[in-house]
Amino acid sequence: MPYKPIRKAVFPVAGLGTRFLPATKSVPKELLPVVDRPLIQYAVDEAREAGIEQMIFVTGRGKGAIEDYFDMAFEAEATQRERGKDLSALEGTRLAPGNAVFLRQQEPLGLGHAIWCARDIVGDEPFAILLPDEFMKGALGRGCLKQMVDAYHQVGGNLVCALEVPIAETPSYGVIDPGARNGALTEVKGLVEKPAPGTAPSNLILPGRYILQPDVMKVLETQEKGAGGEVQLTDAMASMIGEQPFHGVTFDGRRFDCGSKAGYIEANLALALGREDLGEHIRQFAIAELAAMQIMAAA
Question: How much is the mean pLDDT over the chain?
Answer without folding.
Answer: 90
